[in-house]
Amino acid sequence: MKVKVISRSTDEFTRERSQDLQRVFRNFDPNLRSQEKSVEYVRALNAAKLDKIFARPFVGAMDGHIDAVSCMAKNPNHLKGIFSGSMDGDIRLWDLATRRTVCQFPGHQGAVRGLTASTDGRVLVSCGTDSTVRLWNVPIPSLMESDDNEVKPLAVYVCKNAFRAVDHQWDGDLFATAGAQVDIWNHNRSQPVNSFAWGNDTSISVRFNPGEPNILATSSSDRSITIYDLRLSSPARKIIMSNKTNSIAWNPMEPMNFTAANEDSNCYSYDARKLDEAKCVHKDHLSAVMDIDYSPTGREFVTGSYDRTVRIYQYNAGHSREIYHTKRMQRVFCVKFSSDASYVVSGSDDTNLRLWKAKASEQLGVLLPRERKNHEYLEAVKNRYKHLPEVKRIVRHRHLPKPIYKAASLKRIQNDAIRKKDERRRAHSTPGSIPKKQLRKDRILKEVE
Amino acid sequence: MEDKQEAIAAEVDILSSRKQFDIVLPDLGPYTMDFSLSGRYMVAAGRKGHLALLDMKNMDLIKEFQVRETVRDVVFLHNQKLLAAAQKKYVYMYNEKGTEMHCLKEHGAVTKLQFLNKHFLLTSMNKLGQLHFQDITTGIMIGNYRTGLGRSDTMRVNPFNNVVAVGHSGGTVSMWKPTSAAPLVKMLCHQGPLTAMAFHPNGHLMATAGMERKIKIWDLRKYEVVQTLSGHAKTLDFSHKGLLATGTGSFVQILGALNGSSDYSRYMGHSIVKGYQIRNVSFRPYEDVLAIGHSMGWSSILIPGSGEANFDTWVANPFETRKQRNEKEVRSLLDKLPPETIMLDPTKIGSVRPNRKKVKPTKQEKDAELESAVEGAKSRPMKKKTKGRSKPSKVARKKQEIVAMAKKPFLDEQSRDIEMSKKKRKRNEVGEDQLLLQKSLQRFSKKVPS
């Protein structure tokens, strides 16, 4: 007869020396862990609460400019460098890690309105209200350790009209300026190689397509968004919206799509091939959206607004995922996502650049593997129970400054009133005479080919 | 299989054979015991006030003390550092050194104690038939309910959903959650008083024993008896692997669902010294050991195949170090479940509520129902009656009447449906001139006479 019984010797189940790791044994039998779902729900709830507690998005402010920051440019070749231009003609290169000025680019007489760097990161192009375009040599990082120095421009091109924006081709030697007309420049020429105009109004922003190097989108003060193709002699397409578009950003992962930051406090995502209707309307801002920039992942974008807030949206969501504000931050004129998608920089009227985390409760610094696993687990659990009312309430809640909170509720009341009035008008008129409007189509007045 | 414990001891290794022992303590008996979650620690309580805390792995006595009054029940709280004892008038909490930490007066004279370790709820049943739920982390009394079914000496927690089941002297078992004053389930299990009760670790089976010499196994998904065994049991316990131990008098019987069948049959038997009265049997978690508390102390016997061989370090670790225990205490406090999560079906959390709307039966279904009703009426046997009342003509007429009666509700419903649809059609008919009007003005236009 053979009898088997459980017999555990201590040596087999404990560590030999105190330096060893403790031994771990697993048994995934569900009978050993009852109420698994309840436990997960409680963990999700706690994770949501902890996220709220650890939400400290503001990393630091970078001051140095003596007038409002009007434009910024990322250095594509150097992760922690960012250029900023201000309304008094000052251009600075910042080091995001130390949050200090690395060097200055003096020369502009009036406000700097556009900044961009070439893809290799060697050349910086700036333009401004003094009707000049300046090309600068960007100091290479090894020299950056020396005391802050001043850089002389490579070239200065003077034109007749003030410039409002500039953007460099993603892959190539060309850059485009927007002003009275859209000019295409080459690095090596002192005159524009090409000029476009459609109508008499000033173009206020310009962006090259990340996928197709010859396509660019501009917006102008006649409320239009125009798409140009450099291979054609004339502009390709144009739509006129009910309000002016302040800035445009192409989605780097889906290069046929772009999002326009509009004066009516919404952002509109368009498919460039099909401009008769917006793909998505991103609401939530309370005043004109001044600037927009996509994350390199293409899944979200950041906007800065005249209502003194910075918001982060999912590329396909109607409402913002996150809102950033501080007491001292004034009107935000320019925002940029960092090239590693983990930080956001905003430049505002109060002469400061501000550095924010893209995920408010993210832990900075090196994570241990166990820590990272735990974060991933909590994220997964939170995602699983995000629809339960208690979790949803905590995840959605944001504390807002009083003026913004009040303005938001006022706006809600106004929108409700408009909707109600519309419904009543429809009820009291001949059936079919007032069609229902879609916000995605409603704000597009005209499409011109 | 009739295995004497001596025969088993001869076959097993020396480490396991040490797990067979008898502790004779004739003065302060009958003993009851409770194991910690990992099965490493045991607390034994003699009715006359003897409390002993033991480390079963090293076989040493951690602490032994006398409380000098009746102890009816004892449980470990979340780890072996704290234990609760139901004494003559109140419930007391002790730490492992035997220091009295709290006196829980609100519970009263408690007969049975249970601890819900995921919720940190101490549950007690007192002599007046009141059920108390107390959160031991905050000290808040979560629930205090009168069962209204009299005094009860059996209470168990269903490990699947942490619902507390109480067995009453009337033969009913009532199941309670801490957030409702009415029982979730009340089921009549026995004709006489209930003596013992136990839950299978997967929570689907419940075993009950009654005074009328019956042990019943219940399926808790259907609330039906699946097996009735004859026999008396003063105490019952399920092991991790699903063996059922029953104890009565001086005899312990182990039942098991053997050879792939779902029916419980005799697996082993064991008799202790004649005259000893068994008070409590309980399987030691993660070990093939059954502890028997009786009037003369306690004994421990080997039951091969009863325990779960593979433990999970993160659930219950018999080899836990002090650091691991402290860590686990913090973790379990972070994951403490609110009392609302105790419900009959705990998998419902996070799922979608089913649609309450009734689905209308189709025409075929209605016809089939009518058919079956008519068939049923026709096949009903007629009574044999005298004095000419069973004449064929009378029987035929009677049958017709019955069929008509059976059809009537269906026909009524049909006519009602037709009426309704007619009304609906009339309401939807609008005149030409009405159609041209705006929606807001339609109600002012004349109705079209029908």
TrEMBL record, chain A:
Region (Disordered), start-end ranges: 419-449
SMART domains: WD40
PROSITE patterns in alphabetical order: WD_REPEATS_1 (PS00678), WD_REPEATS_2 (PS50082), WD_REPEATS_REGION (PS50294)
Protein keywords: Nucleus, Repeat, Ribonucleoprotein, WD repeat
Subcellular location: Nucleus, Nucleolus
Domain Sof1-like protein, first and last residues per copy: 358-443
Gene Ontology biological process terms in this record: maturation of SSU-rRNA from tricistronic rRNA transcript (SSU-rRNA, 5.8S rRNA, LSU-rRNA); protein ubiquitination
GO cellular-component term (any): small-subunit processome
InterPro entries tied to this protein: Sof1, WD40/YVTN_repeat-like_dom_sf, WD40_PAC1, WD40_repeat_CS, WD40_repeat_dom_sf, WD40_rpt, WD_repeat_DCAF13/WDSOF1
Placement of WD repeats on the sequence: 62-104, 105-146, 282-323, 325-366
Major location (coarse): nucleus
PANTHER family tied to this protein: DDB1- AND CUL4-ASSOCIATED FACTOR 13, U3 SMALL NUCLEOLAR RNA U3 SNORNA ASSOCIATED PROTEIN
Family the entry assigns: Belongs to the WD repeat DCAF13/WDSOF1 family.
Record's protein name: DDB1- and CUL4-associated factor 13
Organism of this sequence: Erythranthe guttata
Automatic annotation (TrEMBL), chain B:
Biased composition (Basic and acidic residues): 409-421
Primary residence: nucleus
Xref: SUPFAM superfamilies: WD40 repeat-like
Cellular location(s): Nucleus, Nucleolus
Biased composition (Basic residues): 380-397
Protein origin, superkingdom: Eukaryota
Record's keyword annotation contains S-adenosyl-L-methionine: no
Gene Ontology CC: nucleolus; small-subunit processome
Domain BING4 C-terminal positions: 266-346
Keywords: Nucleus, Repeat, rRNA processing, WD repeat
The keyword Repeat belongs to this UniProt entry's keyword annotation: yes
WD repeats, residue ranges: 187-228
Any matching Pfam family: WD40
PANTHER family tied to this protein: WD REPEAT-CONTAINING PROTEIN 46, WD-REPEAT PROTEIN BING4
Protein name per Swiss-Prot or TrEMBL: BING4 C-terminal domain-containing protein
Source species of the chain: Erythranthe guttata (Yellow monkey flower)
